[in-house]
Amino acid sequence: MPGRTGWLVVGVTMAALAGMTPSAASAAQGEASGNGRPRWQACTGQDLPAGMECAAIEVPVDWARPAGRRIRLDLARLPATEPARRIGSVLGVPGGPGAKGIEDLKRAAGDLTELRRRFDLVAYNPRNTVWMDQLPQVCRRPGASLHEPRNRGQYEALSTTMAKAFTACANQDRSGLSAHLDSLSVARDMEAVRKALGEERLSFMANSYGGVPAAAYARLFPQRIRAMYLDGVINQTTGWPEQGLLALRRMEQVFGRFTRWCADTPACALHGEDAGAVWRELVRDADRAPIPVTSSQFGKAKLTGWHLRSFGFFPDPGKGNSRWLTFADAVDKGRRGDGSGFADFALGNARVWSMPGILAMTCGDERGYTGYARFQQARRQARKTSPNFGGAAFDALGCAGWPLRVANPSRPLPVGGLPPFLGVGSTWGDYAWTESFTAMIPGSVTVGYDGPGHVMYLSGKKCPIEHATRYLTTLRLPGPGTVCPAE
């Protein structure tokens, strides 16, 4: 469901379709030492920030069997530039899932120079990146043709097909990781990083899906958190359907922005018409008679209204409103029987979200429907909340056939002993998610960024970064209702 807002869909799709090769920095030279402490040495590779050091630690594949098979997690750090005034370390918690924290640190280093004065900036590549880098070929194959089931029979058939795909993937998994990619396992890895750093408590910067392991860490190790900065994070503790409804409400608001923009913009292909009505008619007609398309990447297929609702609209208008111009053009072509403007992105994401190797990184966090009754209820709520985009959630459909126990179910987060957290979110998109997280923790604040975007500190947004730096350094929070202007 969260992927409906565009950026999470893009992130996972690109990770899945771009070859899944390790980065230069993640091929770290540093080895894990015998006592568990990392051996830091200069990283090698291209486009690395000056002074970046690399190392590695080892952690169990299954934390319930600490003496069993182990995997290596690559680390990187940028040491504090004012060591005499050093406070400690800030650990980045990347999103995705499947994003590499070392790549995040490389990207953000130039914008975090003030924070680095007082902290070592530490990154790691989570266990799901280890999984992605050695993914068996069968795990990359779509397990089913994702669609919105019309009845119990179709739902159960989809679940059965996906369960077979998960089982086939697990049978080819030589790492053992496919059953241990849940965020509780990731949180225990984070604790291993803290111990390896020799820090009594850590400060954290979590982004996007990184909010799920951040919550898991807060659940397991609340006394080890000095401060927690959350940037555009999902709040899995309230349940994915609830987070999906928050996303849909915001999507409706942004779609209203689009229709007003189109009405005022002669260059919009739907200018002079009721753009919202044209979109809803296109979606309705595609559900009744799917649009035949030929994709350069995925061949011949048909686009249903579900494909369009799930993957058609970008809330971020893009530079010069380029994405909204493209969307309006695609809608105009679509109503004339030409679905080419939607084909590659919609079909690509529908494939990715039925790949068992991708889904294995999220299904253990209870991302799937728990049964047909829950599917019906969630779909009904989604349609009521969002006339333009409501329906079955593609991520929950993919996980519906998850054959293993859900290791990290959604449930309330105990907040006793936690310090106040700082959140940042785009008022166009992920603010509602982040605020739902910080609202659980007394004294916490979420700053709104009054513009589109996702993960502000990775986007170089100065105002959110200044708030994050001040909070992490001094533990002082901005006032409730603080808003950063669009940059």
Which structural class should the secondary elements be placed in?
alpha/beta
Overall, the morphology is: globular
Secondary structure tally: strands: 12
Label the CATH architecture of the largest domain.
3-Layer(aba) Sandwich
% residues in beta strands: 5-15%
Fraction of residues in helix: 25-40%
Task: Sketch the major β-sheet.
Answer: 10 strands, mixed
- Please provide the ordered H/E string of secondary-structure elements: HEEEEHHEHHHEHEHHEEHHHHHHEHEHE
How many domain units? Answer: 2
CATH H level, superfamily name of the largest domain: Alpha/Beta hydrolase fold, catalytic domain
Identify the CATH class of the largest domain: Alpha Beta
Query: What is the spatial order of strands in the main beta sheet?
Result: 1-2-3-5-4-6-7-10-11-12
Q: Which stretches are low in confidence, meaning pLDDT under 50 for 5 or more residues running?
A: 1-30
Oligomer description: single chain
CATH topology of the largest domain: the name is: Rossmann fold
Distance between the termini: 28 Å
Radius of gyration: 22 Å
Mean pLDDT score:
92
**Total helical elements:** 17
